[in-house]
Design brief:
mainly alpha, 9 helices, 0% strand
């Protein structure tokens, strides 16, 4: 059993909004495609993270980011390092790219810029001067791609720096051990 203060994926009902640890923007932490009817949902059972799924996170950073439990575990790890702003910025950019309303585009872009990119922003991400200035210029006429370079730099930073430390972290190794013990 993990110590009480160790992170572990919360047992949330599949496809229902969650409101606890590991919450991802009000979504549940199940890992199936929308529209499918997994057996656990039909029977009222809860989805559990498998050892195979957790092990796959070590295959690539993008595999980790695409898995809801992986994203939640990585976020928990980044919080221990006081660097969750990188992931939050990356997620804000992913959400921004889904914006379909031209009226909302400029205000969303401004909010992201002020929160993450601007010098002395409350959750300023670590990007170089040229990228910051390019993004500032892109803000004059915001488009769905105005944060692409900054998002790419932050993704690369997390992949090369935070991701390898996450794979060696107690959070990840304990999670793997927990899933393996359930098999025995």
């Amino acid at each position: 059993m993990l110590p009480a203060n160790a992170w572990h994926p919360p047992p949330v009902p599949c496809c229902r909004p969650s409101r606890g640890a590991g919450e991802i923007r009000g979504q549940s932490l199940c890992d199936h495609s929308v529209g499918k009817d997994p057996p656990a949902e039909r029977t009222g059972q809860r989805q559990r993270l498998s050892t195979e799924e957790a092990t796959r996170w070590a295959d690539s950073f993008d595999v980790l980011l695409s898995h809801k439990y992986g994203l939640a575990a990585f976020r928990a790890f980044l919080k221990t390092e006081f660097s969750e702003e990188n992931l939050e910025f990356w997620l804000a950019c992913e959400d921004f790219k889904k914006t379909r309303s031209a009226a909302k585009l400029a205000s969303k872009a401004q909010r992201i810029f002020e929160e993450f990119i601007d010098v002395q922003a409350p959750r300023e991400v670590n990007i170089d001067f040229q990228t910051r200035e390019l993004t500032r210029r892109n803000m004059q006429e915001p488009s769905l791609s105005c944060f692409d370079q900054a998002q790419g730099k932050v993704h690369s930073l997390m992949e090369k720096d935070s991701y390898p430390r996450f794979l060696r972290s107690k959070i990840y190794t304990d999670l793997l051990s927990q899933t393996q013990r359930r098999l025995s």
